[in-house]
């Protein structure tokens, strides 16, 4: 089953185009995912392109992976350039046995990275806003959530700008590849909260 098939791709915003990732997008996304300042915060940071390419091309990953293209730019040479990627992992919500079916594919975990050359201009907020709209629109989800290391302030600031609510702050719950246990943070948003905005 293709969890994102109910959405008409690409999603378009004022400045961006968001489409389903393909194996051909691996090289473009490697440009920023290989950078230490990005790799510091993401779940997996392969040291070489071939390892990254193989992981990027895994069918299960491609089902959940989106890429962000720049559509409106003062520099015409940047039109269509990929500047970020998004993960939308649809999953079951927790439920008691008698209502288990109603919780199937009810929520999504979101994640994102952005090329540092394009940070600080609202692109991440714009892209995640569009994806949340798809989650609560054509996908009909009940809830979305996103987590990050608490030290990754730019990421949780995006969550706050989008009206997501801090649901968890956990002390030293996440082991960083540096070997240090770091604080974790999770934000969530319900469909009815999104519609009330």
UniProtKB/TrEMBL annotation:
| SUPFAM superfamilies membership | Acyl-CoA N-acyltransferases (Nat) (SSF55729)
What residue stretches are annotated with the N-acetyltransferase domain? 16-192
Question: Which Pfam families did the record assign?
Answer: Acetyltransf_3
Which InterPro entries does the annotation name?
Acyl_CoA_acyltransferase, GNAT_dom, N-acetyltransferase
| Residue runs in coiled coils | none
Q: What is this protein called?
A: GNAT family protein
